[in-house]
Design a protein that fits this description.
CATH topology: Sodium/glucose cotransporter
Number of helices: 20
CATH superfamily: Sodium/glucose cotransporter
Strand order of the largest sheet: 1-6
Structural class: mainly alpha
Number of strands: 6
Number of domains: 1
Shape: globular
Radius of gyration: 22 Å
């Protein structure tokens, strides 16, 4: 009976999501502009909430609480702080400029479109490189969402992980295939509310069950490094599983080192915001640049509260159930564990819908942007420039299916750690597009050659640092986003200084800045 009520709540939620997709299907499929960018018609609250929901994914309900549960507050806190600051700065300095400039630069409707039009390239090299990186990193991102769904149903109902992961992926694919950007953004708005309520509710019942926040903190003091900000809990593992003694999890007597370099590299999560297409697209899609201030305040408030709640859920879960989740992968189910143990079944089902909401709101964005990169930017932008809208739409939907199959294959490993998958893809976007976006919006003399050098060096360095340098340890054991971001910036500046700026590009830049100044004077 309990499982039936949980399932009923989740089925009702999924039916609402499908309904939204069907409602917006006709309008979304009228043109590629509507399908990929919603005709630049998003209101300020839909823009803000859908941006954050699509950004955070199941990571905020499973990945981040899992880190806090497994090793303590340190890693989770500095990551959350970096993301909170990054959210605010991105909305403050990038949003309005990009909304204005993307319209001036050929009414661009995708991020590769904007970069290509910004530099007035004819051979579409920038567009092709950007589209390929989007395809690579969003396929990885989508796989993390499918892992989330598989873990959710496997933990909740003890169903086979692989079957549940594939079933969840199929649901997301069908929904995205039907609805496009408008359906995605409107449902993401609703899903951001569900996610927010779920985080606050689960944290509330968890703290209540523990007898208050003070008992939680007192309980956690017995785990070395768990409540430190410059040291981190070091679980004693055997074959990846934390050991238990006297009904308590075993940690090393001395916390692992977490120095200033590590703190800075963890804070660098915030740099990723300048390059993630799912957020940048919302900036481009808002109907009125003057409404961005409302969006900024809404988005920042949502992010700060949600991230804080996610970290505290992990901490509270460890206090309540110290030996329940003994691997890094299993610890990411702490939100599910607390919901199912502490809430009535139907209400727990609604909380589980929060995980579905987070997963759907992100994976539909990832699939849609990746398929648009192939159809709009590679197929129409490079291979068949005369392709009509209906051809681009068809290629997009075929691509969506193919990307999904690859993402499903990557998600087959049940021991995948969501936090690690997301951190790699996040670094990829942050280093590939973040520096170029900032220089494109703020430096008039950025050249096409500098743009190409920055994208390639940043994207490639993410792989080099993650796979070759980071395993060496020591000072190299930092988050790959930070060094890759800096390398990209250096390449953009050096190569731009060595090459000549197109006068037409400078004229476009001046036009965009004049438009921006007019808007700022109206405030």
């Amino acid at each position: 009976m309990d499982n039936f009520l949980v399932s009923l709540a989740m089925i009702c939620y999924m039916a609402i999501i499908i309904g939204i997709g069907l409602y917006y299907a006709k309008k979304s499929n009228e043109s590629t502009d509507n399908y990929f960018l919603g005709g630049r018609s998003l209101g300020p609250y839909v823009t803000a909430m859908s941006a954050e929901a699509s950004d955070m994914s199941g990571w905020i309900l499973m990945g981040l609480p899992g880190v806090a549960y497994f090793t303590g507050i340190t890693d989770a806190f500095w990551t959350a702080l970096g993301l909170g600051v990054g959210t605010y700065i991105n909305w403050l300095i990038v949003a309005k400029r990009l909304r204005v400039y993307s319209h001036v630069a050929g009414n661009s409707i995708t991020v590769p479109d904007f970069f290509s039009n910004r530099f007035r390239e004819e051979n579409k090299t920038i567009m092709g490189i950007a589209a390929l990186f989007i395809l690579i990193f969003f396929t990885v991102y989508a796989s993390s969402c499918f892992v989330t769904v598989g873990k959710l149903f496997n933990t909740l109902f003890d169903f086979d992980y692989t079957i549940m992961m594939i079933a969840g992926a199929v649901f997301v694919i069908v929904y995205t295939y039907i609805g496009g950007f408008l359906a995605e953004s409107v449902s993401d708005f609703m899903q951001s509310i569900v996610m927010f309520i779920a985080l606050i509710a689960v944290l509330g019942v968890g703290i209540y069950a523990a007898g208050g926040l003070s008992p939680v903190l007192e309980n956690l003091k017995q785990f070395p490094g768990f409540l430190e900000f410059v040291g981190i809990g070091d679980p004693v593992l055997v074959d990846g599983t934390q050991q238990v003694a006297n009904n308590l999890p075993v940690f090393s007597a001395e916390p692992a080192d977490y120095g200033i370099i590590t703190i800075l590299s963890t804070l660098s999560w915030g740099l990723g915001y300048f390059g993630v297409p799912q957020v940048l697209l919302r900036f481009m899609a808002i109907r009125d640049p003057q409404e961005i201030k409302i969006s900024r305040r809404t988005a920042t408030t949502w992010v700060i509260i949600s991230l804080g709640a996610a970290v505290l859920i992990g901490m509270t879960g460890r206090a309540l159930y110290p030996t329940e989740l003994l691997t890094a992968s299993a610890s990411e189910s702490v939100f599910i564990l607390m919901s199912s143990r502490l809430m009535p079944p139907f209400l727990a089902g609604i909380m589980m819908a929060g995980i579905l909401a987070a997963t759907i709101s992100s994976s539909d964005s990832y699939l849609l942007i990746a398929s648009s990169a192939v159809a709009k930017n590679l197929y129409q932008g490079i291979f068949d420039k005369k392709a009509e809208d209906h051809q681009v739409m068809r290629i997009s939907k075929i691509t969506l299916l193919l990307i999904s199959l690859v993402a499903i294959f990557l998600a087959l490993d049940e021991e995948s750690v969501i936090f690690q998958i997301v951190s790699f893809a996040w670094a990829g976007f942050g280093a590939t597009f973040g520096p170029l976006m900032l220089f494109s919006l703020f430096w008039r003399n950025t050249t096409k050659e500098g743009a190409i050098a920055g994208m390639v060096s940043g994207g490639v360095m993410v792989f080099i640092w993650k796979l070759l340098l980071k395993p060496m340890g020591g000072i190299l054991n930092i988050y790959e986003l930070l060094p890759a971001f800096l390398i990209s910036c250096i390449f953009i500046v050096v190569v731009s200084k060595m090459t000549k700026t197109d006068p037409r590009v400078q004229e476009d830049y001046d036009t965009a800045m004049k438009e921006l100044n007019k808007l700022n004077q109206l405030n």
